[in-house]
Design goal:
Layout (H helix, E strand, L loop, with lengths): L1 E14 L10 E17 L6 E6 L7 H15 L8 E7 L9 H15 L8 H13 L5 H8 L3 E3 L5 E3 L7 E6 L6 H14 L1 H22 L4 H22 L5 H11 L4 E5 L6 E6 L11 E3 L1
Helix pairs in contact: 1-2, 1-3, 2-3, 2-4, 5-6, 6-7
Length: about 300
């Protein structure tokens, strides 16, 4: 009996969201406490593909898996009936929360199809990115890149993918804003904003580019006190970009204000914005009463 298993992490983005579609770099990290486990077994007499879903967020994948597999077979021009056996997915990554659930699913299935000999090693990134277009309309590939590598990356669309060499570890966390963000809606909102205000849109992208540069310099400089101030400034600048795009109103804004009142030195949406998760930076460990809401980065 053939067997295969793989584990793909969730993700969080420090800076570069949305603007990454237009060539601005993004800094992205795996979220190791939220993962998708795929396991596969194929008895010799298997005639169909049976799917089993487990974990806190496994059932949320029910409607997504078959659509992704149909698209995968269409892209590779192979019949779906070719896929047989027992496929089990166990997920702790919530869908639609900005933690990279769709990318993790596309990468896990791409790795499995590579094991089956349907997708070649060298085409895995682009194949998984094309699959993710089903969810985002136009995937920048940033989530796919970190899901495949499992390492913190400086990512540029169609360009450099460089592993980040962090010189120190900040006290940083993500926490749920209380409202789901819909990635495609947020992407379209930013695109609409830029279409109406191309010069302002370009200037805001420039601000995000500078925020990315500040954060990257801060993390790769071993002089921690100075680097903390630079990281704080970079996160605040990136947060202001989200505000200018109109992606912080309501629950995200309220949540960010709560975190600042509790002692966070910088906060910003992470992912698409409009809800989802918020990144917070602290100089020391956050208050005990907040820890249950915070996921360490």
């Amino acid at each position: 009996m053939k067997t295969y298993s793989t584990q793909v992490p969730g993700k969080w983005i420090l800076a570069g969201e949305h603007a990454v579609l237009r060539g601005v770099p993004a800094l992205v990290f795996p979220l190791r406490s939220r993962v998708l486990d795929l396991s596969y077994a194929c008895p010799t007499n298997a005639q169909s593909l049976n799917l089993y879903l487990h974990g806190e967020h496994g059932e949320e994948l029910q409607l997504l898996v078959w659509g992704v597999l149909e698209r995968a077979c269409e892209l590779k021009k192979v019949p779906r009936s070719l896929l047989v056996g027992e496929l089990t997915l166990k997920s702790s990554i919530p869908v639609g929360a900005g933690m990279g659930a769709s990318a993790a699913l596309c990468v896990a299935l791409t790795k499995w199809l590579n094991y089956l000999g349907i997708v070649k090693e060298e085409e895995m990134f682009e194949f998984a990115r094309t699959l993710e277009n089903l969810f985002h309309g136009e995937s920048s590939g940033v989530d796919i890149a970190v899901s495949l590598s499992g390492q913190g990356l400086h990512y540029e669309r169609g360009g450099e993918r460089k592993v980040l060499d962090l010189q120190w570890t900040p006290h940083w966390y993500i926490s749920y804003s209380g409202q789901r963000g819909v990635t495609l809606e947020c992407v379209n909102k930013v695109k609409g904003f830029i279409a109406k205000n191309p010069e302002l849109g370009s200037a805001i992208d420039g601000q995000m580019r500078n925020a990315v540069a500040m954060c990257e310099k801060a993390l790769t400089d071993p002089d921690e006190p100075k680097s903390l101030e630079l990281l704080k400034a970079g996160i605040e600048s990136a947060s202001e970009v989200f505000e200018r795009w109109g992606l912080t109103e309501g629950a995200p804004q309220n949540h960010m204000e709560m975190l600042k009142k509790a002692g966070a030195v910088a906060v910003k949406p992470t992912g698409s914005g409009g809800g989802g998760y918020v990144l917070s930076l602290w100089t020391t460990q956050p208050p005990e009463e907040l820890l249950s809401q915070l996921i360490p980065c």
